[in-house]
Amino acid sequence: MKEVSVKEIANWPKESYALIDIRDEGLTAYGMLPGAVRLDPDGDRKENGERINKIGREKKLVFYCQIGRRTRELDEGQLAPGRDCYSLEGGYVGFVSAQNDDEAVREEKQQRAEESIRKKFHKQLFTPFARGCRDYRLISEGDHIAVCISGGKDSMLMAKLFQEIQRHRKVGFSLTFLVMDPGYNKENRALIESNARTLGVPITVFESDIFDAVDTIEKSPCYICARMRRGYLYSKAKELGCNKIALGHHYDDVIETILMGMLQGGQIQTMMPKLHSTNFEGMELIRPMYLVRESDIIAWRDYNELHFLQCACHFTETCSTCHEDGTTSSKRLETKKLIAELKKENPFVESNIFKSVENVNLDTVIAYKKDGVRHNFLEDY
Length: 381
Description:
alpha/beta, Oxidized Rhodanese, domain 1, Rossmann fold, six-stranded mixed beta sheet, five-stranded parallel beta sheet, 44% helix
């Protein structure tokens, strides 16, 4: 399929072409290009044909994937016979990076993003962020916090919320915005750096060879990758004089983890709002987005016309993307859909799942673990 650059498309009349996103559902859930239509090139051929036929025949079809590799190899004769088809050079990442090249646009986006946190989304974002920090005692006087940025919407917003809460000066603490490059594609790393510049987040980037190390692992590579990334982040943060690392898990991550633990792992557990590191003495992990809803993060992202990565690993083009805790997006997406279905019948289902691990009655539990030791109700019966 012939390629077309972002600059070339910018000179086309908007009504002369249609954007078609061929990425998997896990990636498109994190954002699509404006006006794009999603299509699964490996899906039902008849259904794909019907979707394409709905697009006026006078329009050019511009297909895009994450970084432009898959679309170059598409067979336009099978997908859209007789149509004028193109592969978007650089894909989704290239398009977004191009939007951030203009300095005036960057300044405007930063100002708008910060103002929206203070005004339009103050109640939805800043208030639960501040409440989580207060209720779980996540920030203390004199802390040096490594804000770990993966390049996704959650960690980038977390960085902006930290900047905002620091501006209030109720507690004296310092921040280092830490990005680890474990072997990103150059396009993905460029997008992370581009978004950081656009939002005014002064990142510190360090490199590791994690992706090379897990390249040959067949069983649970995402889990092992996540564990290794965590260790590298702790190590670098401690080297930089930090006593805490902050991760961008939000409220929905918490309830999905609770449900996945029960359905997939046969256990009751949750993501904790903070943890002492067992391998790095004096270090602590905190999750200040613990009470922030994902729908509000998405609303903030879309209101400010921001585009982030879900996963920046070099497997993104060929596998389901992974989550920070090592679970694949397919399992998380499955759980997310299940919760959405349950919510149709019970509007309180999300808060009930969240509260369930706060209201554990040990008198009605068959067995539990404490400090690695298993206890059974028969011990005290």
